[in-house]
């Protein structure tokens, strides 16, 4: 707890420091950009004078607005200034980010920006073009209504104009040569380059970019966009037709298969239930108790399962109780040990404990050392895997790899089509196909029907949990000592308070308080339910605490990075601080 407290204090101090050092990043500003007007005046010398008006609605306090202007290769941004109602505002520049200072709270403001794009027009032997990204995928804000107007040096009728991405088919060429791009709403993180070309003679004082004709290439680029759009519409219609037929058919087939397997399972389960005895019984042991706990507990192991495994070693006689909290290995009786039992003995009695001796105090001392946490966790995981291996070896699940792989392959074949649905904006079919794909994949992964024996184990131990709370003293006394101990160990392993508390109640009712007498050799024999009800809770809490402590010191972290840009590496966006 002390370590966690130190980390929390350090994190808080770091956060406060970041807020003071970088207030724009540390403080969130709530705003919307309701209207943006951009007028780009192309000058005869190839420069471009840009005037922008940005209307912001702020909710809460703010310090100003930001405008990122990343110039294309070969160009630069100069003479940036900002004003509101004719009054200049202070501007601060950080690389390609301009910060316009204007404090306020809960208000709408309209800020005018002006700057020059030097060498913004590319001049060729026949045409001059302005190809520019006023925003790109680095833009952090959405524009609710964006209009971009390109103005030539003088009136002309010889104009080419079109846009890419968000600007596609938004252009309108006016009779005087102006080109207006009515983009409307533009989401954050989107590109929208605009491209306009005029006769080269309108730029007599501009430097020649390349002595070659460019008109044909620009016209071809525009036609390619139109062809791509037409092909996209055609493909979209084809995919929609396929989806209307294919998705429902696949859904019917999949859910039909699921229904058949469910009905088959219900019939098999009903047959198992018919064979079960009506009176209380402790199920026969088909496999070890740790494996039984794992199998009947949803293929998962709790920290208490290790405590149950230790108690089961005592029950079987492989381990003897030396005192109330101490145990030792019976070296003469190790031949019948399973692999996971050997692993547990090796770890508890020779790593945590010493020379075949183990106590709960040893476990507490071992886990207090942080250097042991990873080792404890690693051994715990390996032990659980060994227990799972015993379950696997018992063949409690039906072998149906072919059926599951068929489902998986069909699902994977569906994946490219789903991606195409998203690519071509068929959102409804994308969602329907996605649900179908995930259902099929999860079904293929988790469909593992149990065999007759597997279902019987689940059913019988489920009856134990259900009936144990109502067990009478007479019924309990009718059980053998081994059955009493197995039931109690099972309750510990699955953390079932009903079984544990009922056992303790019955022990107190039928036995006098225990006075443990230990031999000089250090062995308490024989193991019985009374001893279990005494050290069982100690074992459960000891292993639970060890698990929680080791888990708390194991963590990991990840990091990611992103990038982007518009035409020629240029672009930009808007924001506030």
From TrEMBL:
Residues 32-197 form the DUF2207 domain. Signal peptide: none annotated. Residues 549-561 have a biased composition (Low complexity). Pfam families: DUF2207, DUF2207_C. Residues 549-577 are annotated as: Disordered. Keywords: Membrane, Transmembrane, Transmembrane helix. The keyword Transmembrane applies. It comes from the Bacteria. Residues 562-577 have a biased composition (Gly residues). This is Uncharacterized membrane protein. It comes from Mesobacillus persicus. The lineage of its organism: Bacteria, Bacillati, Bacillota, Bacilli, Bacillales.
């Amino acid at each position: 707890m002390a370590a966690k407290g130190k980390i929390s204090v350090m994190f808080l101090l770091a956060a406060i420091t970041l807020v003071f050092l970088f207030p724009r990043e540390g403080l969130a500003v709530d705003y919307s950009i309701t209207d943006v007007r951009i007028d780009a005046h192309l000058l005869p010398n190839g420069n471009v004078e840009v005037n922008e008006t940005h209307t912001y609605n702020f909710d809460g306090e703010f310090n100003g607005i930001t405008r990122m202007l990343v110039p294309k290769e070969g160009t630069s941004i100069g003479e940036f200034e900002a004003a509101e109602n004719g009054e200049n505002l202070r501007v601060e520049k950080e690389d390609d980010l301009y910060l316009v200072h204007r404090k306020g709270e809960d208000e709408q403001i309209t800020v005018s920006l002006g700057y020059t794009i030097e060498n913004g027009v590319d001049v060729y032997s026949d045409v001059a073009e302005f190809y520019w990204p006023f925003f790109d995928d680095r833009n952090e804000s959405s524009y609710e209504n964006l209009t971009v107007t390109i103005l030539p040096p003088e009136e002309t009728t010889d104009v080419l104009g079109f846009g890419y991405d968000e600007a596609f088919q938004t252009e309108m060429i006016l009779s005087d040569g102006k080109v207006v791009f009515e983009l409307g709403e533009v989401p954050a993180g989107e590109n929208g380059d605009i491209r306009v070309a005029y006769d080269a003679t309108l730029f007599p004082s501009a430097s020649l970019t390349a002595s070659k004709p460019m008109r044909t290439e620009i016209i071809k680029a525009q036609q390619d966009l139109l062809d791509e759009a037409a092909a996209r519409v055609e493909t979209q219609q084809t995919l929609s037709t396929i989806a209307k037929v294919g998705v429902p058919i696949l859904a019917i087939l999949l859910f039909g298969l699921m229904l058949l397997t469910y009905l088959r399972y219900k019939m098999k389960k009903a047959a198992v239930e018919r064979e079960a005895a009506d009176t209380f019984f402790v199920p026969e042991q088909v496999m070890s108790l740790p494996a039984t706990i794992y199998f009947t507990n949803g293929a998962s192991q709790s920290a208490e399962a290790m405590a149950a495994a230790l108690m089961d070693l005592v029950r079987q006689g492989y381990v003897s109780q030396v005192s109330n909290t101490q145990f030792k290995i019976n070296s003469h009786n190790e031949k019948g040990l399973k692999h996971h039992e050997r692993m547990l003995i090796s770890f508890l009695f020779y790593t945590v404990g010493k020379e075949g001796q183990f106590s709960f105090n040893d476990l507490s001392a071992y886990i207090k050392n942080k250097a042991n946490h990873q080792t404890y966790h690693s051994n715990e995981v390996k032990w659980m895997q060994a227990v799972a291996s015993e379950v696997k070896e018992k063949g409690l699940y039906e072998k149906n790899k072919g059926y599951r792989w068929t489902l998986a392959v069909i699902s994977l074949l569906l994946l490219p089509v789903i991606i195409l649905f998203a690519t071509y904006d068929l959102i409804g079919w994308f969602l329907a196909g996605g649900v179908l794909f995930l259902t099929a994949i999860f079904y293929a992964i988790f469909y593992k029907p149990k065999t007759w024996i597997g279902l019987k184990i689940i059913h019988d131990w489920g009856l134990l949990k259900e009936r144990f709370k109502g067990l009478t003293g007479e019924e309990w006394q009718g059980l053998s000592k081994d059955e009493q101990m197995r039931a109690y160990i099972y309750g510990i392993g699955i953390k079932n308070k009903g079984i544990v508390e009922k056992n303790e109640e019955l022990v107190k009712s039928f036995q006098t308080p225990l006075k443990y007498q230990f031999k000089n050799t250090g062995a308490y024999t024989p193991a019985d339910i009374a001893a279990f009800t005494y050290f069982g809770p100690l074992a459960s809490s000891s292993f639970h605490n060890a698990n929680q402590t080791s888990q708390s010191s194991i963590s990991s972290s990840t990091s990611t990075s992103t990038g982007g840009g518009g035409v020629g590496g240029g672009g930009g966006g808007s924001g506030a601080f």
